[in-house]
Structure formats: C-alpha cells, structure tokens
C-alpha cells in the first residue's frame, strides 16, 4: 500500500529538480503506476537501471569551516541550513560554506526558522530574534527557572517549549499556556513543537497534545488504528510533513495521522526507538528520526538505520532538519549531511571504476585490492599493500570487466580486462626458474617488487611456528616469498583453492567474452593448460617449491574422501570439477573430460557435490566458501551439458542456495537465477524475491568504501541466530529473515559474514568497488538488469 506521505507526482517533480541542479540525465524514469510506493525506482521488482536515490554522508567539521563542532540544534529557513552551537549560530551556503551569523557566549540550545520569517533562537537564559542581516532583537526575559528545550513558529506567534512547560510570546512577554500545563500535570517537559494553520502540536513528557490558540483549548491526542489505540507518554518528537500530516515518535513507537486515519508503527517494526526528535519532509526526503544511538529514516516503504561513522559524526542526535532532499543532523562532534543523490547503477559503476584506476592498482601489473589511508578524509596518500588473495580479488575484478565489456563493448572495460588478464597470467609464470621453483604451472598467490621491503622478514619460519601453535593445518614453508628468476619479484607461496576458483572463473570469462584474436585465445589456452596439467600431474594438488601440497590446494580423492580435509569434501569436489570443465572447454583436450568423468564416477565426486557446504543452517558455515562455490557453479553449469550431471549439479546448487537466499547477495542470486533448472523436491521456478533483493542490494551498496565500525545487536528489528548455529553469539538477521541491509554493515568482499551484527573499523581501510562491479555487470550481461 502506498504510504500517505508519498505522492508520486511530487516525488517525480522533486527528482527532476534535483537532477537539473546536479546535471544528471534521467533515463527510464518510471511513472506512478510502475512503482509500488510512488517513488523513483522504489525498492520493488524493477529490472531497469533507472534513476534512484543514493544516500551519502558528507561530514561538516572545523575542516569544512565550522567555528565550533558542538552542534546543539539545526534548522532550515528554506534557503539555508542554520546550526546552533556553543559559540553562536552558523549558516551554510553551498557556494560560500559556513558563516557565523550570531556570536554568543551562551550555547544556542534551540532554533526556529521558516521561509520569509526572522530567525528565532534561545540560549539557556534568553530568547532572541534575528532578521538575517544585522538586527538582533531580544524577546524579553524568561520566567525564573525556565530552561528552554525547543521553539515553534507560526506567522502570528512564537512558542517556547521548556522543561517547565509551554510558553507563548504575547505583549512582549512570555506567558504560560495554562491549558497545556493542566493536561500534563507534573510531566511538563516539552520536547518538540510543530504548528499548522489552526493547531499547535506538542511532543511532551506527559503525552502528545494539540492546542487551539484561538479557543485556548488543549486536548490529548490518542492515536488509534483499527482496534489498536495508544495512550502516549514520553513523546520525543512531532512534526508535520509537506502534506500537513502529523508524525510523532515515542519509545512505544511512531505514527502518522493521514486523511484516512492513523497509521502506527510499533517497536517490532522500528530499528531503534530511543528517540530525540524527528523531521518530516516530502516524498523525496521522507521522515527522519533522531535517536540517542543513530538516525532512522522512513521512505514510505522501508525503514533504514543510519548509525556509526559511515553515516554520522556522532550517534547521539541533537537535532534534525530536512533541507531539500537531504537531512542535516546536529551532533556534539559536528554536522552530518546525509545527501540524497539521484543516480543510476551505471553511474555508481563509473565511480568505482575510476577510483580503482586511481588508487587500487598495485605494481605495473595492476593487482586490485583494498588500500590503507593515513586519514579517513584523505585519499591523496594511500598506502598499497599485498594480501593473501591478490590473485582471487584481481580475478574477480577482471571478471567484472569482462561482463562490462560483453554488455557495453566499451574500450576502457576491455583494456581493464586485458590488464587483469596479464596480471593473473603472470602469477603462473613468475614462480618458474628461480632458486626455489615449484613444478611447472604452479600459480603464485601474489607478487611484490624486490625494490620494496623484503616480505620474508614478516612471513618467515618463526612466524610460521607461532601460527602453528593455534592453527594445526598451518604449513611451515621457507622461504614463503622466493625471488623470481630475473630477480625483480618476490612471489608468494602456499596458493589455495581460493585463488584457483577465482582464476578459472576469470579464465573462462576472459576467453569467451574478451579474447577475440587468435593470439589472445592462444594465450588463455596456454595458461589454462599449464595450470590444469599441474593439477593432473601432481595428483589433483597444487605442489609448492618444497615438493609438498599446499595447505588448501588439495583436491585428491585420498585427501578429501578419507584424510584431514574431509570437511572440504563438497567444496573441493565442486572446485576441481569446475576447473576440469573450464580446461576442456578452453583447450579442447579430452584428457580433462576424462579426468572429470573419473572423479565423478570412480571416486564418488558425483555424490560429494550433493553436500556442498559444511553448515548447520542459514547463518552458519564460511562465507569465503560461498563466494568460491558460486564462481565454480557459474563455470560448471555454463559448460556441463550432460543431463545426468546437470541434474546433480542442480541438486548441489539448490541445497547451497537454500542457505544463501537470506543473505540477499546479488552475486549468488544472479548465478542461481541464471542457471537454475527445476528438479524434484527443490524450487520449481526461480523465486522472484531474489531478483528484488539483488537489485536492492546493488542500489543500497555504499558509495563510501571505507571500513567503519557499526553496531546492530541492540536493534529492535533483529532476531538473533538460534543456539543450533555454532558461533551464533552476536550474529543475527532482521526479524523478517533477511540479513541486515548492506548499507547498515561493512562489506569489502563477498566473503564477509553478513550475519555479524557488530563490526570494527576506523575508516583507514578503503575497499575497492569490485564487490559491486562484479554482480552489477553480471546482472546486466545476463539480462537481469536493463540499461
């Protein structure tokens, strides 16, 4: 049902104005009948890459020109944002920045601003009026002991809320509003005031009140929806939206009075309820609620929780003001502007591609991964570093570029894919011929230039033995970083199945979608043949320079069926089988199909893949495994045509995806939606919700890729994982069964645990955008997203 605050035409007009100002082209703007809530590209089953609203936090501190960061209140006069601080009032102009309007030795505790009306403000002792230029007028002395808390304005009157009750300014003095005090009795504190043409609405300690100034009559507002009625106490906020509908917020819930009656939202629907204030706007801005731990946004359909430094300067919200489509938030550590930017998913992709080109490509080969910042607000001096999984992350980046090129035929995406291909191909070349050389075809995890620091001072036998004390499968390997034959590179050993899953996924996509000339095709064939031959010649294992298998690169029947890696039986079976299918497809050599058939039939891998994930229900297991498995499903199901084997692959993926569906991961969802073929006792069609979830995740994917701390374990809309899930402490999901949305937690790669409710981060790690680029361009290429 469309929310009463969201009028479809006002929403479209607001969007058009925003786009005109920002110079953004609107493509495929849906009409009201095309959206469930009347919003632009609302969170509904849309497949078109239409314009939607993207939120982004813009902090305002001393660095941006604030004289004082202790913002106590905030207001909009229609043209500007104004904040009250402990040193006076500041006004923001988007061209000129922050300017001090009024200096004060007393903190400004509340503001009231309106178009074409003088600004009214209060300190702890006085109330004054400012005309915006130079005239400051005192509005009389406050009664003794009155402590201001809020202000309200109408064209005729000024209302002052205080801890001692409600006052009105008349005849050059402040007069107590007796009718209100009589209703509130001993619970007099006023939290927020809003006015319309004939009524003053009051959020108070003693309840929600309406006051008629002409009749001097106060009445208690008791919201009722159907048979449910609320007798309100401890009301924290009240405001009118642009349609004149009245919103309130209290610990027991919040609600809106519409033309057709009340609509109430109880604690079970809200992320958090320790409210401090609210601000209601129009269809483009929705309604914002301040709390003592973050901000809550309601867009007419979805509740969003904005907590932690990704979104706020401080979690305790002192005041809110909606200004255009944006929300401005006053905190003790500065002002947070949550911008609402009209954009498309392609626009977001362009941003991430540009940032990766500029900051995230390491060495002349361009390996892609996160970087370290010296300060969260400064990316001018990033520090690049290696990781255990450079080959995996760069392969997934290259795969994204392959999908983009196949969908757009753009030259930049082709060049990016080629660069990634050269980087991954080099990993199977660099280990050969040096002082510590593994069998031919062994791919390195990563490389570092010899001109930099020696990584063996960090990763050595001493550190290996320490690791072995708590990790019994850890392998001692010296050196862990041998030098290449030409002496230019250190290369990292002990390559895992993670790398191979990413490599073979990328091999197949680059061969099929990007490599066009015979020379390009031959270069892929050569790499795939030597890496896969290495596996066959070494008993389905990656064998390192010490002549022994790597820790995780073991796929042999005698290892995964009967030895120490039986927990990896399902996943490692999926991995090696998918590699062999890729090798058969690319090289045309029948030896790979023969090996595939032998493993399937003689060594029971046909049965192994039926139990693909070590898990105990949704929320259990290892997300790194999930990421690896679905890349393997993509390649296996792309190339396997035998009905018998395909049916078993479907059973495997169906069992796996039953655990993944609540995670709303667009990468997993698009792979499943592309290849799923019904088998008995599983889905008989692709659940449409997974396409809705995938699109929603892509739209909500944060533009801010810094890793910030976040907290969700205290939320009211969270259900903890049950005790039957191992390691269930501090893990959970929304009560409706899906994980917390992606913009309310951290995501670097798709191997991160989406069920973890709290996380650490100081903003000094800047993740790249591959985890967006890969599923987005896969979705476009596969036809799930129309550009």
Tell me about this structure:
By secondary structure, the protein is α+β, with helices and mostly antiparallel strands. It is built from 17 helices and 42 strands. Strands 1-30-29-28 form a four-stranded antiparallel beta sheet. Strands 2-3-4-5 form a four-stranded antiparallel beta sheet, with no helix packed on it. A four-stranded antiparallel beta sheet has the order 6-7-8-9, with no helix packed on it. The model is unreliable at 1-46 (pLDDT under 50).
Topology at a glance:
Layout: H1 8-22, E1 52-60, E2 71-76, E3 81-85, E4 88-93, E5 97-103, E6 110-114, E7 117-122, E8 126-130, E9 136-141, E10 148-153, E11 158-162, E12 165-170, E13 173-176, H2 178-184, E14 190-195, E15 200-204, E16 207-212, E17 217-220, E18 224-225, E19 228-229, E20 237-240, E21 246-250, E22 253-258, E23 261-266, E24 275-280, E25 287-291, E26 294-298, E27 303-306, E28 319-323, E29 326-331, E30 334-343, H3 345-360, E31 361-362, E32 367-368, E33 371-372, E34 383-384, H4 390-408, H5 411-427, E35 447-449, H6 461-470, E36 489-491, H7 497-514, H8 518-537, E37 541-543, E38 549-554, H9 557-560, H10 569-587, H11 590-602, H12 605-608, H13 623-639, H14 643-660, H15 666-675, H16 689-700, E39 706-711, E40 718-720, E41 732-734, E42 758-766, H17 770-781
Antiparallel strand pairs: 1-30, 2-3, 3-4, 4-5, 6-7, 7-8, 8-9, 10-11, 11-12, 12-13, 14-15, 15-16, 16-17, 18-19, 20-21, 21-22, 22-23, 24-25, 25-26, 26-27, 28-29, 29-30, 31-32, 33-34, 33-42, 35-36, 37-38, 39-42, 40-41
Helix pairs in contact: 3-17, 4-5, 4-7, 4-17, 5-7, 7-8, 7-10, 7-13, 8-10, 10-11, 10-13, 13-14, 13-15, 14-15, 15-16, 15-17
């Amino acid at each position: 049902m469309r929310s009463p605050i969201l009028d479809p035409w006002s929403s479209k007009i607001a969007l058009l104005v925003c786009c005109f100002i920002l110079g953004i082209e609107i493509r495929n703007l849906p009409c009201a009948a095309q959206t469930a809530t009347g919003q632009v590209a609302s969170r509904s089953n849309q497949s078109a890459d239409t314009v939607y609203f993207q939120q982004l936090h813009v902090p305002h501190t001393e660095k941006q020109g604030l004289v004082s960061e202790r913002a106590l209140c905030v207001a909009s006069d229609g043209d500007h944002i104004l904040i009250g601080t402990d040193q006076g009032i500041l006004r923001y102009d988007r061209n000129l920045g922050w300017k001090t309007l009024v200096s004060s030795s007393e903190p400004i505790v509340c503001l009231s601003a309106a178009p074409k009306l003088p600004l009214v403000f209060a300190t702890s002792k006085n109330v004054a009026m400012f005309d915006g230029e130079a005239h400051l007028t005192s509005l009389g002395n406050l009664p003794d002991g009155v402590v201001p808390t809020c202000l309200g304005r109408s064209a005729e009157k000024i209302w002052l809320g205080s801890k001692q009750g409600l006052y009105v300014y008349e005849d050059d003095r402040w007069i107590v509003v007796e009718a209100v005090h009589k209703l509130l009795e001993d619970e007099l504190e006023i939290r927020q005031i809003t006015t319309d043409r004939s009524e003053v609405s009051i959020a108070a300690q003693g309840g929600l009140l309406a006051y008629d100034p002409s009749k001097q009559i106060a009445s208690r507002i008791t919201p009722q929806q159907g048979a449910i009625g609320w007798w309100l106490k401890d009301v924290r906020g009240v405001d009118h939206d642009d349609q004149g509908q009245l919103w309130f917020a209290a610990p027991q819930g919040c609600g809106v009075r519409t033309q057709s009656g009340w609509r109430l939202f109880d604690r079970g629907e809200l992320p958090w309820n320790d409210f401090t204030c609210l601000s209601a706007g129009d269809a483009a801005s929705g309604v914002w609620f301040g709390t003592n731990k973050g901000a809550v946004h309601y867009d007419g359909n979805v509740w969003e929780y904005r907590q932690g430094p990704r979104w706020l300067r401080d979690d305790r919200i002192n005041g809110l003001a909606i200004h255009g489509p944006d929300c401005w938030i006053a905190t003790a550590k500065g002002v947070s502007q949550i911008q609402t930017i009209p954009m498309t998913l392609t626009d977001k992709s362009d941003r991430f591609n540009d940032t990766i080109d500029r900051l995230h490509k390491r060495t002349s080969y361009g390996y892609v991964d996160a970087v370290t910042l010296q300060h969260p607000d400064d990316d001018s001096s990033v520090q690049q570093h290696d990781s255990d999984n450079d080959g995996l992350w760069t392969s997934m980046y290259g795969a994204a570029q392959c999908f983009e090129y196949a969908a757009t035929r753009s030259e930049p995406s082709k060049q990016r894919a080629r660069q990634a291909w050269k980087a991954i191909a080099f990993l199977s070349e660099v280990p050969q011929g040096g002082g510590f050389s593994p069998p031919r075809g062994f791919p390195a995890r990563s490389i570092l230039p010899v001109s930099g620091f020696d990584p063996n001072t960090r990763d050595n036998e001493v550190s290996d033995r320490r690791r072995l004390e708590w990790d019994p499968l850890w392998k001692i390997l010296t050196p862990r970083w041998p030098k290449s034959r030409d002496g230019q590179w250190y290369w990292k050993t002990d390559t895992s199945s993670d790398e191979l899953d990413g490599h073979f996924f990328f091999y197949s996509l680059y061969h099929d979608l990007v490599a066009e000339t015979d020379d390009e095709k031959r270069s892929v064939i050569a790499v795939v043949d030597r890496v896969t031959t290495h596996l066959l010649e070494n008993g389905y294992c990656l064998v390192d320079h010490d002549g022994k298998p790597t820790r995780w690169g073991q796929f042999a029947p005698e290892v995964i069926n009967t030895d120490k890696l039986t927990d990896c039986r399902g996943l490692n079976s999926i991995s090696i089988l998918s590699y062999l299918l890729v090798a058969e497809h690319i090289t045309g050599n029948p030896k790979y199909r023969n090996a595939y058939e032998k493993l399937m039939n003689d060594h029971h891998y046909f049965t192994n893949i039926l139990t693909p994930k070590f898990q105990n229900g949704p929320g259990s297991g290892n997300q790194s495994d999930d990421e690896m498995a679905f890349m393997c499903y993509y390649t296996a199901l792309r190339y396997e045509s035998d009905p018998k084997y395909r049916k078993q692959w479907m059973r495997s993926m169906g069992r796996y995806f039953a655990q993944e569906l609540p995670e709303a991961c667009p990468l997993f969802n698009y792979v499943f939606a592309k290849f799923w073929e019904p088998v008995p006792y599983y889905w008989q069609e692709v659940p449409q919700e997974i396409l809705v979830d995938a699109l929603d995740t892509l739209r909500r994917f944060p533009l801010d890729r810094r890793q910030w701390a976040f907290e969700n374990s205290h939320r009211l809309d969270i259900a903890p994982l049950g005790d039957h899930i191992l390691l269930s402490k501090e893990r959970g999901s929304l009560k409706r069964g899906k994980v917390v949305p992606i913009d309310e937690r951290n995501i670097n790669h798709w191997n991160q645990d989406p069920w973890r409710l709290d996380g650490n981060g100081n903003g000094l790690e800047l993740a790249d955008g591959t985890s967006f680029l890969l599923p987005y361009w896969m979705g476009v290429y596969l036809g799930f997203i129309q550009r």
